[in-house]
Design goal:
Blueprint (H helix, E strand, L loop, with lengths): L4 E2 L4 E5 L2 H15 L3 E2 L2 E5 L2 H6 L3 H13 L1 E4 L7 H7 L8 H9 L2 E6 L16 E6 L8 E5 L4 E7 L5 E8 L5 E5 L4 H18 L2 E6 L7 H24 L3 E5 H8 L6 E5 L1 H15 L5 E6 L5 E5 L5 H8 L9 H17 L3 H19 L2 E2 L1 H4 L8 E2 L2 H15 L1
Parallel strand pairs: 1-3, 2-4, 2-5, 5-16, 7-14, 12-13, 12-14, 17-18
Antiparallel strand pairs: 6-7, 6-15, 8-11, 9-10, 15-16
Length: 404
């Protein structure tokens, strides 16, 4: 097209691994580049490149996101021992998402993409449940060790003057074991709290927050206290004016309550809880392939990605030359989220409008009965058909052309 939309500021593009990497290229070529003169600063976060650069490329991509304000990220492999052997890695590199989140110090908001015909497994859920995941510290930046029999593990805190405070964690007399240390900061927790309160006010949703402070009387209790202090001093009046509620409870109580609600609220979770609960909410609403994810940092940086992984099984089929039917919707919505935000920040309404039309084309394609096989098994539409990865993107492209 000769009248492509011209971008003024680059978007940071973080490529990824396996089947999502394949779809990433397809989406760009089929749905974006025919309409947009894509201006991006590209970073290859594929596992081989991360290993080659000793993970420096992940750090560079996060700093680029801070520089330009908007990033889109493909799903990436977080290697385990099997992956280290498979790829011949120098070491078991940490999660790139955790590294990026640590640098950006943001909060991850994950929401289901709701379409007609895909009914939640919990019938009461009629409105979105948005998971706000704290994106810093905890087990994702923790230290771990294997402990030998008859060794002793202690928590040691060294003061500025060199004085030490020690607390016994466990005496491993007679048995081997494992130990893990984790941390967080008041500054990051406060940023998390303010991001959640602000987002709740923006979309006029109630906000839940849950930890296990009855057991973790210092670590989790610190989260609870910081949230409560910031709410009381900065947000209580605003929430009352907006007629929304901030609600704190224990994490197990929140899990029990959530299945009895009709949705329509933000559920703020610590890092690990949010990782787990976002997958539960996504699958209950239909599919991990139908959940958006955006990392929002206190300085206004946005990083959009799909909530799911790299779809390894489909990638192996693809490499064997077999047809796949991989859901690309969440990856498409990562691109549309980033392009829409870039349009807002750069005062390019035509770019934001294009992104929203692409989302509309995706949803209408599924609601018309054309979908990938994961959704075919869930859809209640009377007439529907499962199509391949490529055919779905072609169907979206055809509908997009009609909308535009």
């Amino acid at each position: 097209m000769s009248n492509k939309i011209k971008m003024t500021t680059p978007i940071v593009e973080m490529d990824g691994d396996e089947m999502t990497r394949v779809m990433w290229k397809m989406i760009k070529e089929t749905l974006i580049e025919p309409y947009v003169e894509l201006k991006s600063e590209y970073y290859d976060l594929g596992l081989e490149k991360r290993d080659e650069t000793n993970d420096q490329i992940t750090i560079d991509s996060a700093n680029a996101a801070k520089k330009y304000g908007v990033a889109v990220k493909c799903a990436t492999i977080t290697p385990n021992a099997q992956r280290v052997e498979e790829f011949g890695l120098k070491e078991m590199w940490k999660s790139p998402n955790a590294t990026i989140r640590g640098i950006l110090d943001g909060t991850v908001f994950r929401a289901p993409i709701i379409v007609k015909g895909i009914e939640p497994f919990i019938p009461r859920w009629k409105k979105p449940i948005i998971i706000a995941r704290h994106a810093y510290g905890d087990v994702y930046k923790g230290a771990e060790e294997i402990v030998a029999k008859d060794e002793k593990a202690e928590l040691v805190i060294t003061a500025k003057n060199g004085e030490e405070r020690r607390r016994l964690i466990h005496d491993f007399s007679g048995t081997n074991g494992i130990i893990q240390g984790q941390y967080n900061t008041d500054e990051s927790i406060a940023s998390f709290a303010r991001s959640c309160f602000n987002y709740a006010l923006d979309i006029k949703f109630d906000l839940w927050f849950a930890t296990k402070d009855t057991i973790s009387k210092k670590y989790d209790h610190r989260f609870k206290d910081i949230f409560d202090e910031i709410f009381q001093t900065e947000y209580k009046t605003k929430f009352e004016g907006a007629k929304i509620e901030y609600f704190y409870t224990l994490i197990d109580d929140a899990v029990a309550r959530v299945v009895r609600t009709d949705g329509g609220f933000i559920w703020a979770c610590k890092n690990y809880d949010g990782d787990v609960m976002s997958d539960m909410v996504a699958s209950t609403f239909g599919s991990l392939g139908m959940m958006t994810s955006v990392l929002v940092s206190p300085d206004g940086t946005y990083e959009y990605e799909a909530a799911h992984g790299t779809v390894t099984a489909h990638f192996r089929k693809y490499n064997r030359g077999e047809s796949t039917s991989t859901n690309s919707v969440a990856t498409i919505f990562a691109w549309t989220g980033g392009l829409c935000k870039r349009g807002e920040l750069d005062n390019l309404p035509e770019l934001s409008s294009f992104a929203k039309n692409l989302e509309k084309a995706c949803i209408e394609t599924i609601e018309s009965g054309t979908m990938t096989n994961d959704l075919l098994a869930l859809s209640t539409l009377p007439e529907k058909s499962g199509v391949s990865t490529e055919k779905f993107l072609e169907a979206v492209a055809e509908r997009l052309q009609k909308i535009i």
